[in-house]
Amino acid sequence: MTLVQLEYLVAVDTHRHFATAAEHCFVTQPTLSMQLQKLEEELGVQLFDRSRVPVRPTEIGKEIIAQARIILAESKKIREIVQGQKQELSGELRIGVIPTLAPYLIPLFITSFLQKHPSVQIVIQELLTTEIVEKLKHELLDVGLLVTPLEDKSIKELPLFYEAFVTYINPKHPLAKHESIKPEQLDMDELWVLNEGHCFRSQVLNICNRGGSTTSQSNNLDYRSGSLETLKRIVETQHGLTLLPELSILDMPEQKRQLVHTFQEPQPLREVSLVVHRSFLKKKLIEALQQEIIAALPHEIRNRKKEQVVPVG
After folding, report:
1. Are 17 and 25 in contact (CB under 8 A)?
2. Residue 6: CA count within 13 A, CB half-sphere
3. Under DSSP, is residue 155 helix (H, G, I), strand (E, B) or coil?
4. Structural domain of residue 258, as residue ranges?
5. Whole-prediction pTM
């Protein structure tokens, strides 16, 4: 049994396809298949059910794969010990970030981070929360930037800051005359929300104490969006209101800022965290990322205490 064989084993489990796994391991499919067959012969068990599409691990295969992931993670820590002796951070850092954070948070820190750590290659993917967690579990990402708490024991959450929700209201809407808003004043029939699957949508419904579903529509317009920027434009040009995260209004022109109304205290907040696998690697890189993000935040957000955090689910 070799580490290479275990890497191939984990790759097939991750991608559930021999050809795709071989491509990601930079070997030919026959080479990968041969090594896995040797491993199965050595162990005396069948690791994958090859009759199914996509290929799936057998019951004993699941247990062996779980142990293989632990062994590979521990072996990588040896390289991290060596890397830790070097002054300069280097290597690849794969980050998953949710769409309601990416356009507002990434620009705040990415330039300064890369200037300080020129030998680090950053790979960023915009993904939904469920996708980020799944990729973390399969080691396809190193760290996620998302909203917590998630209450998933397989991951570790490192809270960064607490961001307030604000309302964005069409000037002709009755609530536009109020400087601050109470959650109970929000009318779901007038509220534009994101598509299913976005944690921001779930939090908006929780703020309104509506756990059920809703559609973003009024009269003869039914618009289902995955973008906060689109919802803002609908409010500006059509009617109604939407909720926005605080970071999204930092660079907003003064004319549009007039459409922003805060919530009355205690303001509903969302907890933004770095999320990693329980046995995560690249600790120094992730610590550097954590420090850079916090340093880049506006003072009010950086120093805000955890108070009324809105549940994600």
Report:
1. no
2. 17
3. strand
4. 163-263
5. 0.75
Q: How far is CA 5 from CA 31, 110, 212, 237, in A?
A: 10, 37, 47, 58
Exposed (0-12), middle (13-18) or buried (19+): which is 292, by Cβ within 10 Å? middle
Q: Which helix (H) or strand (E) holds 37?
A: helix 29-43
* Count of domains forming the chain: 3
Q: Which two tokens stand for residue 46?
A: 């069948």
| Domain membership flag for residue 151 | yes
Of 149, 144, 38, nearest to 101 (Cα)? Answer: 144
SS3 label, residue 132: helix
Can you give the CATH number for the domain in which 103 is found?
3.40.190.10
Q: What is the pLDDT of residues 44-97, one digit of tens each?
A: 999 998 888 888 999 999 999 989 988 888 887 777 666 666 666 888 899 999
Say if 311 falls within a structural domain.
no
